[in-house]
Amino acid sequence: MDLEVKIRSRNIDFYYGKTQALKKINLDIYSNMVTALIGPSGCGKSTFIRLLNRMNDLIASARVEGNLMIDGVEINDPKTDVVDLRRRVGMVFQKPNPFPKSIYENLAYGLVINGIKDKKFIEMRVRESLEKSALYDEVKDRLHDNALMLSGGQQQRLCIARCLAVEPEIILFDEPCASLDPISTRKIEELILELKKEYTIVIVTHNMQQAARVSDYTAFMYIGELIEFDLTEKIFTVPKEKLTEEYLSGKFG
Amino acid sequence: MIVSSKTTKTRGFEFPNASGQKVLCSKNVSQAIGFTVLVLCIVFALMFLGSLIYFIVANGLSVISWEFLTQVPRRAMTQGGVAPAIVGTFYLTLGAIAFSLPLGLACAIYLTEYSPKSIAVNIIRLSINNLAGVPSIVYGLFGFAVFVKVFGFGVSILSGSLTLGIMALPGIISASQEAILAVPQSYKEASLALGATHWQTIKKIVLPTALPGILTGVILNVGRVAGETAPILFTAATFYTRGYPDSIFSEVMALPYHIYALMTEGTRPEVQTQIAYGCSLILLCLVLTISALAIILRQRQRREYGS
Amino acid sequence: MTRFRENLYKWIFTVLAFASLVFLVGIILTLLKEALPLFAEIKFFDFLLGSQWYPTYEPPDFGILPLILASVLVTFGAMVVAVPIGVGSALYIHELASQTQRAFLKPIIEILAGIPSIVFGFFGMLIVAPFLQKLLGIPTGLNAFTASLVLGIMATPTICSISEDALSFVPRSFREASLALGANRWQTLVRVVVPAAGSGISTAIILGIGRAVGETMTVLMVAGGAAVIPKSIFDPVRPMTSTIAAEMGEAVMGSPHYSALFAIALILFLITLVINIIAEIISRRYRLKLGLGR
Fold this sequence. Notes:
heterotrimer; B: mainly alpha; 72% helix; 1% strand; C: mainly alpha; 2 domains; two-stranded antiparallel ribbon
């Protein structure tokens, strides 16, 4: 097996003020794979993926220790340009969060703020991202309508498209289906499987079936610790740890 | 398993900031400029307002004395104190609140507890909002035409209080409404489920719980009313009285009007300016203390509700 | 018996609740009643557009155009000061202030909003006017420019605190989404947060305009008081509010002058009414746009 490590986490400790939220996390995430983070709520899975694009910087009391590298480059280095990092590491949030602008403007936003002025190029990229996120046919006639008029599932796919438009290398999904109905969830999952051809994907989910359906690798976390990490099929069939087995069989969580 | 080499972008396009530093640089420059402008804005605002307070405190402090606070004016306003103006402002404010509080509270109770969704409620809301925007001088004219002339109260504490009271009404209503709405629905449900009537619930549960919030709202409005000049120009205020008012039908001196009169009608500007500084300082202290009190109280309450 | 009492209370509150409406209608009727006699003497448009205001001459002139223009000029000037500074300060508090700074600045701004207008007038007259007169070498410091400046600073805390409220209503998720796409804080602020709070900020500005138009004591003391159509911003002017305040004391009750002052008040009232309605419409639309309660 020759897998390329995209993200490497070594001894990551994370604190909110005095509370430790992550303890010595060691985890490798491979290129062009879908890695799922599962575990009961409060286990630190969301905290962990928010480290990957440094969204936790927004929390005043947050503090991180250890090494976190993307393509071998330390991202918590003071010299790292956070803004560029976030362009390279896209994120889709728990609740769809389109801007209160038109669909087109939502998609063009990431390009415009990154200094792209070429209208033709923007138009092309908007279309491409919509096609990739399987939304194009549904919205092609109303690109200039307010994005908030879309249904919840469409809004979430719009957010994915918005993220794709800036050509990230990694996409983080933070419980992307938490507020969606089963049909919309299905569509998003299909999309994730499609996207892994081009992107490295990390998804946080509390839905074990979802992890089983979409991911290649699964990491099980419990109260700030990484309990087990392996191929998804192994985790779900022959878990090594007792805790993992209990969680998967619904004994807690 | 799949073997993958590093993904390459096949579209032949790279973000400018991934290669060159140009965009990144101009982004950061505009951010730096923008943030500097914001800092300048707040610094200018605070400096101007700070200098206002500084000048009034620096010049007013030397005028304030026990005598200044407790004596009646003497020798055509050039000596003595401004006690009647302080007392007058107190009466006017008290009168205004005594009038507007019960009325405002009743209105707030109606709007939050009884209001059926109807045109009537919309009309009331609309008139409250518009009443809040009416210029203070228009209130003054209204008070003059109605209370002073038609009702025949004359230029008096009564006319002034009623005028100020109407002006304070929208503020009192919205403060009370906010306080009443903050009472958790579960309290009301609990009371109703025990067999209490609607009015009993309002009286025993809703109002006592909302009381602190209502009080802060009222205090905040007291501060505003105490500092108003235009509404009392023709309805209550006078430049000079020999002593203290003896009934609600007497005209009064009031701090804000006194400052105006000292600056515009005087015969000895140099002495009067000093007295005006003194009055401004008293008024400023009064109003700022009152509103600071209200705001601190309100923050404490919000923390308790944990909203 | 209980039911009777319940209904009684309900009726009492219903009746009292209409007080605001009664007062509003009362104000309109009073202004109309006192103002109408004037229009037996002169035509409405001569009143509104006449350029001469000499109410005590024989025969008197009742043209309020200079007063309206003065109000417009001073209000506009005040907004030129208050909008950038007020909104800028709100943005500072929202985006840049540390937790401690914010805990301290928000109440301070709100407390400053309570400084009585008479104190601003007094300060403007004694300190700002002489200072500007010397600084700019103009014949008098009591003019439209000084009035605009003082009035603008006076409106700043109000505009700042309402704008800050509007900014804080913008969902955090918008900000996060923008940052996650690689926008920096300034881009996020200008392109996402401010547009999302846009209608709230406009409401703040419109309410600020309403305040400035209706403000009396400050302009009465600082604007200079000349009822002539202003040629420059450094001319003394007499806005509508200060005309009423200054002349009401000397106008004989029932005289055309007296009616004219009520007519000015009526026009002032109508202007603020329109401003309020616009603010109302915008703030209603705002809630819709952000998807807060429909």
